[in-house]
Amino acid sequence: MKIILIGTGNIAWQFGHRLHNKQIPIYGVYGRTPAKARELATQWKSKAYSDLQKLPDDADIYLFALSDHAYPDVIRDFPHRNKTMVHTSGSLPLSLFESLTPYRGVIYPFQSCTKGCELLSQRLPLCLEASDTATRAVIGKLAACFSEEIYFLDSRQRKQLHVAGVFANNFSNAMYRIAFGLLEKQRIDTGILHPLILETALKIQQMHPTKAQTGPAVRNDEAVIRSHLELLAKENEDWGGIYRMMSSFISEE
To answer: Helices H, strands E: what count in the chain?
Structure first.
């Protein structure tokens, strides 16, 4: 397959890196910033493009890995029609390329990806959707190059999954930032949190989070909650607000 990768960010790097490691040639890499496109193209022995109008028109798949807000401009200026076009967004619909092609697909990686950093877990769930049987076969073949964990979800299901991912990953990571901040203020080694974080993640693979919940809020231990809020009032008012809101949510379950 001739694959042109459109994007130079976190998701683009993850897809390009995996393709390159599988010795699957990347036909071209497009990025609005020439230096970024050249950097990735050099890594993957590909050709860099920073002008959409110069993209080859004979690729088998145009794989778009962009920030959601970048799609309208790229779609408006995209020079080719009736090609197989695949996006990687969790929240955008399959109909995104409707004005460009009837051959539309989605390969959404349900994982936290950071440019230049290989996934710590080899598991990479991929959520697929296609406009027709032929496109489904093509993107299924491509997805199999990346992972064995493949799920076929429609646009509504994928958006619901994306929101769930924000809660499970983005918001939990923000909680880690607060926890680290509290320890750093007292010069306590933040590594002490690592076993607790890992144990929590492992536990919810064995039981529902409702059953795994512990802490003063689930016990309705008002004395401990009050003392924690008094401490947080001296540290950070916003953190106290988050603590109060989360404790209320847990205790009402």
So the answer is: 10, 8
Dihedral angle over CA of 140, 79, 7, 134, nearest 10 = 0
> Are the CB atoms for 138 and 132 separated by under 8 Å?
no
Q: Is the CB of residue 137 less than 8 Å from the CB of residue 161?
A: no
Per-residue model confidence as pLDDT tens digits over 186-244: 999 999 999 999 999 999 999 999 999 999 999 999 999 999 999 999 999 999 999 99
Boundary of a domain, candidates 130, 153, 176:
153
As a three-state string, the secondary structure of 34-103 is: HHHHHHHHHHCCCCEECCHHHCCCCCCEEEECCCHHHHHHHHHHCCCCCCCEEECCCCCCHHHHCCCCCC
Q: Is the pLDDT score of 121 beyond 80?
A: no
Name the residue with higher pLDDT: 123 or 165: 165
Tell me, rounded to whole angstroms, the distance of Cα 6 from its chain centroid.
16
Q: How many domains does the chain have?
A: 2
Q: What angle do CA 207, 147, 204 make, to 5 degrees?
A: 10
Task: Judge if 81 and 181 occupy the same domain.
Answer: no
Are residues 145 and 221 located together in one domain of the fold?
A: no
- The dihedral region occupied by 116, where left means phi > 0, alpha psi between -120 and 50, and beta the remainder, is left
- CA separation for the pair 91, 188 (Å, rounded): 39
Cα 77-100-7 angle, rounded to 5 deg: 55
Query: What is the per-residue pLDDT for 33?
Result: 97
Please say which residue of 153, 184, 205 terminates a domain.
153
| Mean of pLDDT over the chain | 95
Q: Are 147 and 228 members of one domain?
A: no
220: left (phi over 0), alpha (psi -120 to 50) or beta: left
Domain that holds residue 228: 159-252
